[in-house]
């Protein structure tokens, strides 16, 4: 019996995607329940990032459909695998820049900024992006994806280069977001122990 009360934040139906002769998706179906963590587990090059790009509308499928519950891009937070932060800005200026893009009130940017700095153990707000380590830069990128309090959070390998203790703290926070605030998180990872903490896991094996 179908439960008609289930709400899906993202639905992918019969998706096909090729790069030349390489098949990435072959009739892929995926349903992401609202208020859950959906893990995409698999090695590099198996199509996880391509799937996220298609969900975000940055790439198109060869055939098939993708339906998002949210129609407003401002309700989506996205952290790409490849960092695209402006190296000459400070962390403070980076928060201000993205907060302005999302039309956040200055007081909300300020409060969220220091909340995320504490949670993600970010360096001083006066540090320039170019002087950060790889792990610190990834944490700033993760913070930016959460800054505007989005309903749907899409994260591509967010914990690579982050120490295990902080990685576990981040996952605890993801769980709180889902349980307490009904956020939906789609996250790619190649860490099996991380994927096991998701509500549902999809295994990608294409190469």
TrEMBL record:
A molecular function (GO) term: ATP binding
InterPro entries named among the record's database cross-references: AAA+_ATPase (IPR003593), ABC_transporter-like_ATP-bd (IPR003439), ABC_transporter-like_CS (IPR017871), P-loop_NTPase (IPR027417)
Keyword annotations of the record: ATP-binding, Nucleotide-binding
Name this protein carries in UniProt: ABC transporter G family member 23
Pfam families attached to this UniProt entry: ABC_tran (PF00005)
Organism: Sipha flava
Gene assigned in the entry: abcG23_3
Regions annotated as coiled coil: none
Gene3D superfamilies: P-loop containing nucleotide triphosphate hydrolases
Segments forming domain ABC transporter: 10-205
């Amino acid at each position: 019996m179908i439960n008609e009360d289930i709400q899906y934040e993202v639905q992918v139906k019969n998706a096909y995607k090729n790069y030349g002769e390489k098949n990435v998706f072959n009739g892929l179906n995926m349903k992401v329940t609202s208020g859950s963590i959906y893990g995409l587990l698999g090695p590099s090059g198996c199509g996880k990032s391509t799937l996220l790009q298609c969900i975000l509308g940055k790439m198109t499928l060869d055939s098939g459909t993708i339906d998002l519950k949210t129609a407003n891009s401002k309700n989506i937070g996205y952290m790409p695998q490849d960092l695209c932060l402006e190296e000459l800005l400070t962390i403070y200026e980076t928060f201000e820049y993205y907060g302005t893009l999302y039309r956040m009130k200055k007081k909300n940017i300020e409060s969220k900024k220091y909340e995320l700095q504490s949670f993600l153990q970010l360096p001083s707000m006066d540090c320039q992006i170019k002087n950060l380590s790889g792990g610190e830069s990834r944490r700033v990128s993760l913070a930016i994806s959460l800054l505007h309090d989005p309903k749907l959070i899409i994260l591509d390998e967010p914990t690579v280069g982050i120490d295990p203790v902080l990685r576990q703290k981040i996952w605890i926070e993801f769980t709180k977001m889902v349980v307490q605030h009904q956020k939906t998180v789609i996250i790619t990872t190649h860490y099996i122990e991380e994927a096991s903490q998701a509500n549902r896991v999809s295994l990608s094996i294409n190469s």
